[in-house]
Amino acid sequence: MQLLQDRIRKDGKIKEGNVLKVDSFLNHQMDIQLFEEIGKEFKRRFEGEKINKILTIEASGIGIACVVAQSFGVPVVFAKKNQTKNIAGDVYTTKVESFTHGRVYDIIVAKEFLGKGDRVLLIDDFLANGMALEGLAELVQLSGAELVGAGIVIEKGFQQGGDLLRSQGIRIESLAIIDSMNEKTGEIVFRD
Length: 192
Ligand code: 5GP
Description:
This protein is α/β, with parallel strands linked by helices. Helix content is about 30%, strand content about 30%. Guanosine-5'-monophosphate binds near residues 19, 22, 100 and 156.
C-alpha cells in the first residue's frame, strides 16, 4: 500500500533492537484518515470472504481494528492481557511472549464473545516474531470459531512471524512488508 509506505518512510523512526517507531500516526497519535484507507484496503483484500467478527489484542491493535471494522460492518473483540476476577472461568486463554516488552503474559477472551459459527479476521499493527498473532489464532481455535485470516499493517519481513504463520496455513495480508531497515542510515527497504 503506497500511501502507508510513504508515511512510514516520512515519519517512521528506526530504533535499536529492530523496533520501528510509528508513534506519530499509528501507535500513539493516530491518523484516522489513514486508518480509513487501511480499512478499505483490508476490505478489498478480503472481498468475498464471510467475516462477522474482528479480533485484535490490546492495546495498540484496538484503534486500527475499530476503524477496519467499520469497513466490514462487524463488531470488534479485543483480547485482554490480564485476567480479571469477574470473568474468571468463562474465558478462553493462552500465553503470549511480548516482542517489545520481552515477557510472557496471558491473553483472554470471554467465551460469550467468540465461538462456533463465528468467522474471524485478526487485525494487528505489527507482525514481528508472530507470537501475538499466534496467540490470537489459538484463541479462535479454542473457541471453535473459524479463522478467515489476518490483516497486518506493518510486517517486519526479516523476522520469522510471517513465514511461521503462513506455513501453518494462515492467510496473512500485510499492507507494508519491510525487508530490511538500517538504524544508522534510516534506510527502509519494502518488499514489492
Ligand atoms: P510479535 O508477537 O509478532 O513478535 O510482535 C507483535 C506485537 O509486538 C505487535 O502487536 C506490536 O505491538 C509489537 N511490535 C513488534 N514489533 C514492533 C515494532 O517494530 N514497533 C512497534 N511499535 N511495535 C512492535
